Amino acid sequence: MGFFSGVRRRIKKLIPKEIRPFVPYIAAGMIGPGGLGALGQTSSRFLTAAAARAATDDEANLKDIARAGGLAALPSALSDYGAGEGIGAQYAKTAGDYIAKQGALKTGAAQGAIDMGIKAAELNEDALEEYNRMLAEQGIADKGFLYNIKDNEFNSSIGLGSEAIMSEVSSSTIVSSIGSNIPGTSGP
Q1: How far apart are CA 91 and CA 83, in angstroms?
Q2: Which residues contact residue 152 at a Cβ distance below 8 angstroms, ignoring those fewer than 6 apart?
Q3: What confidence tens digit (pLDDT) does each residue in 146-157 have?
Q4: What is the residue extent of each domain of the chain?
């Protein structure tokens, strides 16, 4: 493992960090129509993008590597499937043709943007888990308590006070209380 981390560090220094997320898709876009050797175009793009992600991202796990390969192989996979007669082949052909018309630059940019969006969503999930852990450490396990506080503040601001929360109140009572607190109205 030490050998690969040293290689990754050297590669990381060569490639600017702004371009690094797009390297797997740039590498996959360089694969010709015939693919690499005996491999077809779809398999070649998958393996090339996966290897590029593994070489350039030292924090990438197997899921990240597979996602990069899958996103890179998707356009050629759609075209391959669209050439057949299977269920949805016409839709795959239409999608593949549309992606092909966009050109390699737009396709690579879109693939990189999708990948970065997924990473951002994963970071948001991690931040939410950290927030929930922090609340649990502080003894706030029931977040409903926080919502009740907000509801009480809202009810107080419209003139209902806390008695509306503590007791059963009919909707007509709430409507009449709100109506009497609106300037220019005399209530119901």
Answers
A1: 11
A2: 162, 165
A3: 555 555 555 555
A4: 2-137, 144-181
